[in-house]
Design a protein that fits this description.
Blueprint: H1 2-8, H2 14-38, E1 48-54, E2 59-61, E3 73-74, E4 82-85, E5 90-93, E6 101-107
Antiparallel strand pairs: 1-6, 2-5, 3-6, 4-5
Length: 125
């Protein structure tokens, strides 16, 4: 059966050429849409973050998510210079380092550990 479809198809027939052009345009449109969506930046697959922070403030909020305990490291700064609050994702300087900016590397959970969760809000009734 497939041979009869191919044998009935002719490049000299204007209707067949129109069908062929429509098929090519459809394929081109699908490829263009795929190419456009491929350019949108997907969310990062890693929970590893690396940022530069200023040492001017006493307490610095690193992220909106909670940090993985023990994953925070600051390049060139000893552990005795800062205290990390993993749940609130903050760093508090116990003693400020000599540098103005430092690089902080840490990992985050995909959620905030102390987020307020309510099923019903009875105050609005």
């Amino acid at each position: 059966m497939p041979c009869t479809i191919i044998s009935n198809f002719s490049l000299t027939n204007p209707k067949d050429l129109l069908k062929l052009k429509r098929i090519y345009l459809l394929l081109l449109f699908i490829l263009l849409v795929q190419f456009i969506y491929a350019q949108i930046n997907p969310p990062p697959l890693s929970n590893l973050r690396k940022i530069n922070i200023s040492t001017n403030e006493q307490t610095i909020k690193l992220d909106s998510m909670s940090l993985v305990p023990g994953s925070v490291s600051i390049d060139g700064v000893s552990l005795f210079y800062y205290k990390v609050d993993e749940v609130n994702a903050t760093i508090t300087w116990l003693e400020k380092p000599n540098k103005e900016t430092v690089t902080v590397t840490y990992r985050v959970f995909p959620y905030k550990l102390n987020a307020v969760v309510r099923h019903l809000n009875y105050d609005s009734i």
